[in-house]
Design brief:
- This protein is of the alpha+beta class and 254 residues long.
- It has a domain of 171 residues.
- Helices cover 45% and strands 13% of the residues.
- Strand 3 and strand 4 form a beta hairpin.
- Helix 2 crosses helix 4, helix 4 packs across helix 5 and helix 5 runs antiparallel to helix 7.
- It is globular and about 50 Å long.
Length: 254
Amino acid sequence: MLNQQVDIMKNLLLALSLMLSPIAVLAEALPFESDLDGLLKDHVKPVNRNGIDYNGVNYAAWGEDPRHPEVRDAILATDPASLSSREEKLAYWINTYNVLTIDLITRSGEEESIKNLGNLLNSAWDKHTWNIAGEAHSLNNIEHDIIRSMNEPRIHFAVNCAAKSCPDLRAEAYSADKLEAQLEEQTTLTLGNASKGYMVEKDNSVRVTKIMDWYAEDFNQNDLKLWLETYRPDDIDADTKIRFFNYDWSLNNQ
């Protein structure tokens, strides 16, 4: 009888540990999510400009919002090595890329294009760095060396480069517990935007975001048709031609 009671107590403790651990880890790893959600919901709105539908950012209001430095500093204070799951790491780094891009725009006061914040020697994505866990990170380092190395092509529809033609900034923070649904929705939204993401043309061709040209190797090793068939099976066949939208680097402001 005593052994049975001990076993029951062990099972109860194990079940309680499994129930509480993910919540504790997630809350500790991503303390900025709630405020970032608020920033995105308050300062990101749908806009149509120059024939492009995009999520516009009110950079002036964002830069004056006291939540921004708090969110940025919380992100920079997070040690990525403390994140245990792939979902936690991906959500953290996507949020980090997007927040630091906005931080760059708001600190500089740039009103035309993020490309103006670079020079002939260094692009804007290489020139500016932030210290995370004792290491300097540029936007290019975060995107190419960290995020892309996780082999998730849908991240290209989640990271936002502050340009009108970039896949939209989501008006919600990314989080580990719903990352799969968020990435899937971002992909669907991008491929549903005929002004810059995906459009069927008359001559058995489709026009897609230039992102899929620049990063074609991430989409089934350059097999864009095969990758697109998952989302638009009725539009793609062996003879379909893939073309790309021109890219508008104008700032995605409101």
